[in-house]
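Researcher: Following up on the earlier apo prediction. This time include the ligand. It's zinc ion, with the SMILES given after the sequence.
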Amino acid sequence: MVVDIVSERATITNMITDLITESVKDRFWKYSGKSGPEQCWLWTGTKNRAGYGVIGIRWMPNQKVVSAHRLSYTIANGEIPDGLSILHSCDSPTCVNPAHLRIGTQADNMKDRAARGRGNAQKGEGHYKATLTTDDILAIRASDERQVDLAVRYKTSQTNISSIQLRKIWKSVP
Ligand SMILES: [Zn+2]
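Model: Understood. Below is the ligand-bound prediction.
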């Protein structure tokens, strides 16, 4: 089974409401693209390759980066139980309007994707490009996973992962 990298990462870095400080909320609202209650709020901050907004909620040395729509859900509804996904009723990954977000299982998520024909686009080796993005760098630095596992996932070498985490390379990324 192909596991969506965003959901997987979101599960690893599950929300902790204690980390949602006023300054995190301020930054969330700044990038939320908030508009009418019925409309999609299209995240204006950083996005990952899958099109989901991401936001840092804790800084070095224990940096934590989470999905913007999960943060939105948590601000609106409280903590997301372990292992559950937040699904978009509007099929817009960038949207962070809590009215368009609902809780579901990973299986629901896969079913939704398949029904919308987005699942196929995510499958296969080609999905994970060798070129790393800024979001990848943030995620790699925030990850608790072993370097070898990250190397496999991001199709790069363990040495490269180590250099990223030690900030020997990609110094431009905070
Ligand atoms: Zn929406």
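Model: Strands lie at 54-58, 64-67, 85-88, 101-104.
Researcher: Noted. I'll compare it with the apo version next.
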